[in-house]
């Protein structure tokens, strides 16, 4: 998936996928020419990995091609036609055994990183035959079947931009890392490729299958949990429950009939309230804790107890005054969303202005807690302690109160839809920023947090394919 994200981000930055494919095929051909083989057999699948193979054939020339599957993508078809137009001989799979015997070496352009499940025919049979053939095999990007029970065992793999997780000399042969022209920003910045992680609902799905959110919020403040809840619904989750202290439930319920509001009996959130909301927490896919709860010590204690109790089995977003309670192992299931002031309360660290130093600090603090930190600011920084991305997509009008609650609502909705926490945080920052920019075009400096919420569906509609 990460490869497809990079391709889409590169395209957003002005580098067309077609150019990346041309570069990939050319580089593989250059590597093949360094080897002592006179005639190559190139095996092409129907996707863009096959497209790389057709490009390679044009540059390599001393080769024949088998289209194991008919080209299925626009670029694979385009390069299939280009290869034929320059005289490259392309055969069907029925010629495989014959051409295998005639050729000195193989280029594997059958299946790339997009494979799902186990290998099926005709790929399974071809892979088994090639593994017994003793021919030299060069795979493009990853070997066909990489990650499956049965996979090709090449002598060499030319992979692009980064070495994929799990690649080693045992399963890929000699690994050559090639730069095909993907801009550095495509990997470092949060860009539209993140939307590839958005899970589109199945046509036959029913209520609750696309995410159930519980929000523990309200008390001194009533708007924050309501904004977060509405943002979660606009992001595409099915149900939002808001559990709030007794004095505020009617006000929060009055914001929208789409919110399911559950009253807790205390005036503020306390440890005694946790038992009251067990049923709702139990049915939720993800839980947001913090918006509008206030700063009472007993409330902070309740937040910590709740999160520690369920963190092994539930996803959490921790926002606002609940943030400073997160000084324990979050089991990889928590996204913390501080601004610089809240980050200092959490860590004791006064963040420097230097971006690289900020990134390193955020990464270290995320690793320390085994959590994802989404640091809000002029430049957002997102890290899970391993990976780091930054987001610049937003505007100066988004300093208006409530935008952080909207971001928290988007984030918890994506978690509820089973998006992995790091990707959920990256996509949430992007959706929030893009929705904010769209709202700013209409409302300028009079934009409200509620205006951002109403633009969330437009952003998702435009970028989720």
Could you explain how this protein is built, in words?
With 465 residues, the protein is α/β, with parallel strands linked by helices. It folds into 2 domains: 2-188, 3-Layer(aba) Sandwich (Rossmann fold); 201-463, UDP-N-acetylmuramoyl-L-alanine:D-glutamate ligase (3-Layer(aba) Sandwich), CATH 3.40.1190.20. Helix content is 41%, strand content 15%. The chain contains 17 helices and 16 strands. The chain has helices spanning 2-12, 17-33, 48-60, 74-85, 96-102, 123-133, 169-172, 184-188, 223-234, 249-253, 278-283, 297-310, 340-347, 355-369, 403-416, 421-443, 449-463; strands at 40-44, 63-67, 90-91, 105-109, 136-140, 156-160, 174-178, 212-216, 239-245, 260-264, 286-289, 315-318, 334-336, 372-375, 380-383, 388-391. The strands form 2 sheets. A 9-stranded mixed β-sheet has the order 10-9-8-11-12-13-14-15-16, with helices on both faces. A 7-stranded parallel β-sheet has the order 3-2-1-4-5-6-7, sandwiched between helices. Helix 15 (403-416) packs across helix 16 (421-443). The radius of gyration is 26 Å and the shape is elongated. It starts with a helix and ends with a helix.
Could you outline the blueprint of secondary structure elements for this entry?
Layout: H1 2-12, H2 17-33, E1 40-44, H3 48-60, E2 63-67, H4 74-85, E3 90-91, H5 96-102, E4 105-109, H6 123-133, E5 136-140, E6 156-160, H7 169-172, E7 174-178, H8 184-188, E8 212-216, H9 223-234, E9 239-245, H10 249-253, E10 260-264, H11 278-283, E11 286-289, H12 297-310, E12 315-318, E13 334-336, H13 340-347, H14 355-369, E14 372-375, E15 380-383, E16 388-391, H15 403-416, H16 421-443, H17 449-463
